[in-house]
Each structure stands twice: as structure tokens, then as C-alpha cells.
């Protein structure tokens, strides 16, 4: 495949940044999107030019590090996949592909396509934990009866990988789907009940402090989420928040 790439280049957080054109040839449709960027970077390094900075780690849809806005969509045109799982067969020979960083005030650009998502870490630090009885009389978790539906819903919520696509795709840069998934994961299980009220209050407050916007029920986050996190989690978080407030 022959491709024209229009890639967001930005030296650092202060730099204004701009889209830069690159031509690529001989790209296999079996390559992943990140493989294609590797090929581009190898060529740039060979020419003595600065490679394009982009985030990645596991390259199998687990870590949530890859975070590209591709042709106006978080994680690109495929559904239920992260950028690292996106294949070049989703594009056609001769295509022009726009590649930008995730954009949100709470995700400042570090360099090129790499953004700082430590705001997500700070939200998790204030609530994503449980108290455990370490007196020696700890009950075996497998002995605690849990409703099957609650267990399934908690598991679904726990599949959120913290990629930030929900924020990047939301017109308000809202982090509600991410925070709701984290709150739900604990709220549905007996082990999560102890800190339930503090957890939801602290996490929502931290989300607001980090500068994320409000949810206006557009639902774009659910559509673009690579893990299919449901909007039902936001409804659950709102109920938890209301309960905690009164
Ligand atoms: S809710 Fe979905 S889109 Fe948002 S951080 Fe989690 S996995 Fe990514
Ligand atoms: S690199 Fe880990 S999810 Fe894409």
C-alpha cells in the first residue's frame, strides 16, 4: 500500500505544533497500525530526522498506552480495538491518514503523539483500593457469595484499560465513563462496600479537579471505547454519588 500520513508534530507542551506530511510505500495490509509507524520511524532515523514520538507498551490491547486519534476517531475506524490492534487492512491503497494525539486539557501533550495521562492515575489513587482484614481471620474471597449478574457486571467494568479514548472522543472531554467503570468495579462487590461512599466522592472530586468536563449523555464514549464499557456504569456511579451525598 502507498499512503500519505498527516501527523501531528509538537516538540513539547509549549510548542504550537503542526500537521506534517509523510509518504510511505510498501506497507502490508497485515501490519498493525503501530508497525506502520515503526516503518515510518525507521525511515526517518535512516535519514537523520527526528522519529515521531508515540505511546505503546503491550501491543495486544491490554495496557491502554497506545492513544492515537486516527482520521478523527479515537483508536481509528475499527470497533472494539485499541490502536495497537488496528490493522492496515482497514485502509485502502492511496489513502491519506490523519494521525493526531488525544486532545484534552487534562491530557497535555508531552511530545508529538504522546500525552500525559497521569490525571487518570491520580483519580485511581484516591479510590481504587479496598481495605483488607489482615488479622489472620481473613475470609477466603471464594467463600463470599456474589450474585452472578453482579460478578459479571463487575468483571465487565474491570476490563477498562484506562486508555482515555472516552475522554478524547467526548466533546466535553468528560472522564465519566472511565471513572464510572472504576467505581462500578468495586461498588458491585461486597469487598468494595467498605469505602464505597468515600470512593465515589473522592474520585468524582479528583476528576473535577483535573479539569475533565461534564457528561451530557452524548454516548460517544461508549461507541469509541475499545473495551465496550457500557453507559450503564455512569448511571450506577451517579446512583452511588447520590447515595454517598445523602
Ligand atoms: S472506559 Fe473505555 S475508552 Fe475509557 S479509559 Fe476505559 S477502556 Fe478506555
Ligand atoms: S499498546 Fe497496550 S493497549 Fe495498545
Total of domains = 2
Integer-rounded radius of gyration: 20 Å
* CATH class descriptor of the largest domain: Mainly Alpha
Mean pLDDT: 96
Tally of contiguous helical segments: 8
Percent helix, as a range, is 25-40%
Task: Please mark out the parts with pLDDT under 50 across 5 or more consecutive residues, or reply none.
Answer: none
Largest sheet: 5 strands, mixed
Number of strands: 7
Sketch the topology as an H/E string, one letter per element: EEHEEEEEHHHHHHH
Q: For the largest beta sheet, what order do the strands appear in spatially?
A: 2-1-5-3-4
Which ligands are bound?
Answer: iron/sulfur cluster, FE2/S2 (inorganic) cluster
CATH superfamily of the largest domain: Alpha-helical ferredoxin
Structural class: alpha+beta
Instruction: Tell me, briefly, the overall form.
Output: elongated
* C-alpha termini separation: 59 Å
Strand content: 5-15%
CATH architecture identity of the largest domain: Orthogonal Bundle
Query: What name does CATH use for the topology of the largest domain?
Result: Fumarate Reductase Iron-sulfur Protein, Chain B, domain 2
